[in-house]
């Protein structure tokens, strides 16, 4: 691990194995941190943040830019570490490394925008706000975009003047550890700690640490709720949550159907084996075009190439681990039992190169009951649930009829329908005739059980500051 700018091991020497899910091989061992290790990271962070908050915003921006530069130079290696840790295809993980670089540069350019306000009071009073860092903050991240999250999510905390502790998923820790190594000599010692280990031990120790008052979590809704409760049992903390989704993609009969078919495939993120919070895993198609649409989509999905994640031509790789693999297969069984119609996929690959990995073919079920488990629960796998609707109100009721509210996508040529849908749908991020796209500078986040807080824009940067109001009386007894 990386604590205080130095390599660190778990205080009790414990380690965890890192598996390549595509081959079943153990590729590395890494520390399984204890609560003592978290204490050390917090102590190092407190010491380092005292100096860091005195630096100029420009100097903090320069550090982020230098970090972006070194990541760019090592992008291929970092992408490969993610591939052998989480089984997603190399071309996707390469893109992730590029997105991390973009995020670091975006926040490097935004440092001068951490600004308070002056508030009009009276002739001889001045009222203004100061935005100040917390000290040590923590980021707990999931397995699906290991490096992109590890690198991009330290940008806002550091830019705002904090020290930051990153806890990657125990299934995908290698690229975050490499980030810690690359950051040496660029990020001052102690300011960035990488703590690896199990969520219920290392993660929990971070959540309950009394000195960490600000923590941001990306992961499942159930873990997010447990974290809120655990944090609240210790102190009043600022906890933001980027959680799961069961996101609708709605196709009205006037849509450009070719584009919508491509979007339905792309939006499922089969290229990460469906393991994406923003995946549009519920497809709602108007009854008039439903059969034709499902048939065309099935053809497009069937053409996707499953293969070794290191192969440049692979379009869909391995599920991250056996737990997720079993979960995905159990949902396929549930779908059959619930009476959904399997259109394509639904099978695992076990021959030849696939023998020791967790490969599930991209799967499409149609005629799914909107109330069924397949339509209601986040699978986080390559399983798309399609269902017909009859009109706007019906589509909206189905779209909003889940506990989640992260993303939504609508395909229509009608301005009226597009704007009504964008207004009415319960989601934090809406695409019109588009899907999946994230844009730096626009705020991403969920409503309902998909989370709270907004990231990827200036909101994220400001969320790592605390506002202090200062009221000054400069009245003089002189005339
Ligand atoms: P997870 O909730 O199992 O784990 C996420 C992280 O939390 C890991 O680092 C884990 O070690 C840690 N953790 C687990 N239990 C903990 C505890 N009790 N205390 C503290 N930390 C703990 O999620 P996952 O399986 O790694 O990722 C998949 C989930 O992440 C999906 O639900 C997906 O939708 C969600 N996700 C959301 C977003 C978003 O931006 N909204 C992005 C990516 C993934």
UniProtKB/TrEMBL annotation:
InterPro entries the UniProt entry points to: Ald_DH/histidinol_DH, Ald_DH_C, Ald_DH_CS_GLU, Ald_DH_N, Aldehyde_DH_dom
Key word Transcription regulation present in the record?
no
Instruction: Kindly identify the residues recorded as the active site.
Output: 242
Q: Which positions fall inside the Aldehyde dehydrogenase domain?
A: 12-470
Q: Which domain of life is it from?
A: Bacteria
Keyword set, alphabetical order: Oxidoreductase
Q: Which family does it belong to?
A: Belongs to the aldehyde dehydrogenase family.
Q: What is this protein called?
A: Aldehyde dehydrogenase family protein
